[in-house]
Design goal:
It is built from 3 helices and 4 strands. The longest helix has 56 residues.
């Protein structure tokens, strides 16, 4: 039973008991209280309806936001899905800075260090005398 239905029941009960709302002080008080309860009940019903409507709108916004996040973050993930074999690490012979170079730069044969601005040639030979790095098959 909703609040409005309970207030309507209370109002009917007061009328059924033939409470004198014109001459009796108690009757006037009960009548005013029932009137206030009716207004409170209607206000609560309005709030419940507004809350339900807002909940539906929030759900719709949440769904839209999920779609946007999926589009935005999936694109970022695709950009991050690069093949590590396409990138190589080398050290600048002039300043010692570690550089990460992609395959297109290797094809050029030389690179300019972003730290010291010196150009140096990249040795693409497979000869490694380190004696045990991951790249070696020794």
């Amino acid at each position: 039973m909703t609040i409005s239905e309970k207030v309507a029941y209370l109002k009917g009960l007061a009328e059924g008991l033939a409470i004198d709302t014109e001459k009796s002080k108690e009757g006037k008080l009960i009548s005013v209280i029932i009137g206030i309860l009716e207004e409170v009940g209607l206000s609560i019903e309005d709030l419940e309806e507004n809350t339900a409507a807002l909940g539906e709108e929030i759900d719709a916004i949440s769904d839209d936001l999920s779609d946007v996040e999926e589009i935005v973050y999936d694109e970022d993930e695709d950009e991050d899905d690069y093949d590590e074999d396409d990138f190589f690490e080398t050290e600048c012979p002039n300043c010692g800075e570690t550089l990460v170079i992609d395959e297109s730069v290797l094809d050029e044969g030389s690179v300019q260090c972003p730290s010291c601005k010196e150009k140096f040639a990249i040795d693409l030979s497979d000869d490694c005398d380190c004696g045990g790095c991951d790249d070696c098959e020794e």
